[in-house]
Specification:
26% strand; D-Amino Acid Oxidase, Chain A, domain 2; binds flavin-adenine dinucleotide; 3 domains; FAD/NAD(P)-binding domain; 9-stranded mixed sheet; globular; 35% helix; 5-stranded parallel sheet; alpha/beta
Length: 400
């Protein structure tokens, strides 16, 4: 692939976290950037949870005045009914997506990017300049050109120059409600032999409650039933706005081989399937991929973008694809892995610290097995000792 050394006029299609950050970085470097989004800041279906690793890299997400919720109190529930409550040492920061997208778009605008509300229907990358055809709210369809197009159009992206669409096996279905209830506790519940989970994420003035599951392994009706049972169990009303969306949950081959960059185009964020296949975390990878693409473009080497992503996180996400099935469906010491995890959490401080690091995003998947083996002895010793005292004696953890 020929190296492009002077790309200056950029069209970013999609103003979610991946597109907005990419646009901000390029505009800050003096490039001419236009962000085209059919809705601009909107309540995109999402939990809105940012791990500590995202906050550490983007401190303005914690320091700014925008409304957000800092959560340290977590309840994990097993399919068996067992549950554990524990305290995170580094908080999860939860935003409404309208607020988060608005904040990131405003930063792009302040850096010099132009924001345009328009739907892009077609992208032609075959000529010397990229041609984008678009429909603008209340306007006739028009077109514009650019040197390079960044496709940040999310999981439902259909703009695919010289690459393949995501397959059903690369996607999860999600359903949920925004419920007008205030809480300070994040709840996650696992289901028997189900690759996915239920969640309740508290935001400043409501909860985002939902379920995710592999598109090819479950149906909307089954997921809705689990979701409604969960609401009832949590004592939550079945009211508020309903949402449904797809979420990338890429297989290893997709992460390894799918083309995400060409001479004058690139995919970032969900459109590139940069999502943790085990947890569904996508916000950090969306922002970071937008930034890594901007760095590759500014270096005059867009073709280096996949290597930059691989060096930083996609190799770890690929490793996670190997763990995901075993985590949700596997068995350990005669019980479901998720049940054992909750029992270990109840009884072992060393295991609780490992889980805190996973929640913070500071424990990667590739070194997880090594750490689990290294601390297995202490974990079992702590479990053995805890059998001589009532569960929940430690101040930081309460088995319910
Ligand atoms: C239910 C659910 C819960 C989730 N919870 C979490 C969570 O708690 N934490 C986390 O880290 N991740 C979570 N995720 C994942 C996270 O939402 C995504 O990874 C993230 O939004 C990806 O950002 P993005 O910028 O790539 O795409 P998006 O945020 O999807 O943005 C794409 C943008 O492109 C625009 N667009 C699309 N097509 C066009 C077009 N043709 N023309 C113009 N504009 C267009 C859209 O309007 C949109 O604004 C969740 C996902 C789902 C579905």
């Amino acid at each position: 692939m020929a190296t492009v050394t002077r790309v200056r006029e950029i069209a970013v299609v999609g103003g979610g976290p991946s597109g907005a950050i990419c646009a901000e970085r390029l505009a800050r470097a003096g490039w001419q950037v236009t962000v085209l989004d059919e809705r601009l800041a909107w309540e995109k279906p999402c939990g809105g949870g940012l791990t500590y690793k995202a906050i550490e890299r983007y401190p303005f997400l914690l320091d700014g005045p925008e409304p957000k919720k800092l959560i340290r109190d977590v309840v994990l529930m097993a399919s068996s009914g067992q549950r554990v409550r524990f305290t995170l040492d580094r908080p999860i920061v939860i935003y409404s997506r309208r607020v988060l997208n608005g904040l990131l778009l405003e930063r792009a605008r302040c850096a010099g990017a132009q924001l345009v509300q328009a739907r892009v229907c077609q992208v032609d990358t075959s000529g010397p300049r990229v041609v984008l055809r678009m429909a603008r709210e209340g306007h006739a369809a028009g077109s514009r050109t650019a040197d390079f197009v960044v496709l940040a159009t999310g999981a439902r992206n259909t703009l695919l120059p010289e690459t393949t669409p995501l397959q059903p096996t690369d996607l999860e279905q999600t359903l949920g409600y925004y419920i007008p209830v205030v809480s300070d506790t994040l709840v996650v519940k696992f289901l028997p032999r189900f690759e996915g989970y239920l969640w309740s994420f508290p935001r400043p003035d409501h909860l985002s409650v939902g379920i995710c599951g592999k598109l090819t392994q479950t149906t909307t009706a089954v997921m809705k039933r689990h979701l409604h049972d969960f609401l009832e169990e949590q004592g939550l009303p079945r009211q508020g706005q309903f949402y449904s969306h797809v979420l990338p949950s890429p297989v290893a081959r997709t992460l390894r081989t799918r083309r995400v960059v060409g001479r004058n185009w690139a995919l970032v964020g969900d459109a590139a399937a940069w999502v943790d296949p085990l947890t569904g975390e996508g916000l950090h990878y969306a922002m970071r991929s937008g930034e890594l693409l901007a760095e590759a473009l500014l270096a005059g080497a867009p073709e280096s973008y996949p290597q930059r992503v691989r060096a930083e996180f996609s190799a770890d996400l690929e490793f996670a694809t190997r763990i995901a099935r075993r985590f949700y469906r596997g068995r350990f010491l005669g019980g479901a892995v998720t049940v054992r995890m909750i029992q270990f959490l109840q009884r072992s401080p060393a295991f609780r610290q490992l889980m805190r690091d996973l929640f913070a995003g500071t424990q990667n998947y590739r070194s997880l097995k090594r750490r689990l083996w290294a601390q297995l002895g202490i974990t079992f010793a702590e479990i053995a000792v805890s059998l001589f005292r009532p569960p929940g004696e430690a101040a930081e953890v309460r088995a319910e």
